[in-house]
Specification:
The protein has 21 helices and 13 strands. It is α+β, with helices and mostly antiparallel strands. The protein is globular. It binds alpha-D-glucopyranose.
Amino acid sequence: MESLELRAVEPHCSISEMGDFDLTRALDKPRLKIERKRSFDERSMSELSTGYGRHDLDMAHSPGSRSIMDTPLSYVRNSFEPHPMVAEAWEALRRSMVFFRGQPVGTIAAYDHASEEVLNYDQVFVRDFVPSALAFLMNGEPDIVKNFLLKTLQLQGWEKRVDRFKLGEGVMPASFKVLHDPVRKTDTIVADFGESAIGRVAPVDSGFWWIILLRAYTKSTGDLTLSETPECQKGIRLILSLCLSEGFDTFPTLLCADGCSMVDRRMGVYGYPIEIQALFFMALRCALAMLKPDEEGREFIERIVKRLHALSFHMRNYFWLDFQQLNDIYRYKTEEYSHTAVNKFNVMPDSIPDWVFDFMPLRGGYFVGNVSPARMDFRWFSLGNCVAILSSLATPDQSMAIMDLLEHRWEELVGEMPLKICYPCIENHEWRIVTGCDPKNTRWSYHNGGSWPVLLWMLTAACIKTGRPQIARRAIDLIESRLHRDCWPEYYDGKQGRYIGKQARKFQTWSIAGYLVAKMMLEDPSHLGMISLEEDKQMKPVIKRSASWTC
Ligand code: GLC
């Protein structure tokens, strides 16, 4: 079965098909190490509140452009002891590449020819391309990333409508597709901004990922010319104007509809989902590092600084849950009026679900799924918590506590296949009400407590940042025992994540790329700088290695 499926996909070019010339060239060429100096992203919020001068942009130089079909450098470098999955993964990643007029512009979501239903998995999704982009950057192949950033920037300029309603100018697409006309020999693009998406929801996360990726590209290559173009500066500003606009909000968090991020179906995450809040925070910090303080940029810089202060305060205080906080909420009084209220959002202690009391270890904590008036979603979401660590939305103590929780609740959160998208699942009556009886999101499946291999790269990055690489190693071992054999599924089902997901695609690109990124980061932790932001300088984090697993 496995070999049949593997044969069903035709690679553009496998390693063995490449001429001797290519291979020797790749072997001869030592990896140009990108010197990762402290650079532009470390402009601190506090410095900025006093003056907006940017730090010297002392970026290192580009590792040079390599042919997209070259042998992956990480593979060459490890030729003494490469895990066989690494070469397979590179081959599969290259097979998923999408070209527009001869130039690589992205990777399709899944190369699964065995599946009857293609749906939109043959499209380049913005969020799905992020791990692919990081893999290419880490391997010294920035061109595809640059092309992607420019292509999506062009798409941002399109007029977007859902029926008769015009969407905000800054919205980035959820996905796009290249149509090749073999007769006319032309390539055209169709894009989806939510007007075709199931449920018609705009992808709030796309713009944030775009900004985060632009910074990763700049950091990795040292090429400042891209982010400094008037087009990119405008693109950043347009995204920001969507989420910094003033309205009726009483919170600094961003109000969203259900289904506007990786969890792109109704899963009860409407309101202020942690995934969006963490990405929002990270994108604001990345934008702050890249915006030029010119006439148009200065106003945005000021707004970002103010928002970051308010957002970090709100998140660190009201979204944070640990044993102590849980006990406090359990004893909350309700119906308090005025400024002296302790229970500001009027959370009813009776709404605390039973599972949290058992789940919460004495040591450890996490950012809960959502906080809004009289509503706290106590579920754990992996992406939001990992991005909170990477962006330094979490304080150093909170980051440590998140990792402690992961260690304590390994069976529940990681199980047999890293990593649960959220914990726990919802079932029965609650499932009916919350998901609207979604047959894909049944208990412990897909977005409802399913296990997603793509999350491995974020977990690994968070582990490295908090000085606990051994946790990542353990997760990678689990992935290596199955992912290739199972043909790189999109997700796994079950309480332990043991079964290939009911409707999971095979050869899901971000499962493949996520594995490669995790491997490369662990091998060379300096890659972390692309996707991680240091704590604001004034807070001076002291991150110690914890006394966790030593295996
Ligand atoms: C599913 C996922 C979404 C992903 C898409 C393409 O819809 O929920 O996050 O972007 O598949 O892989």
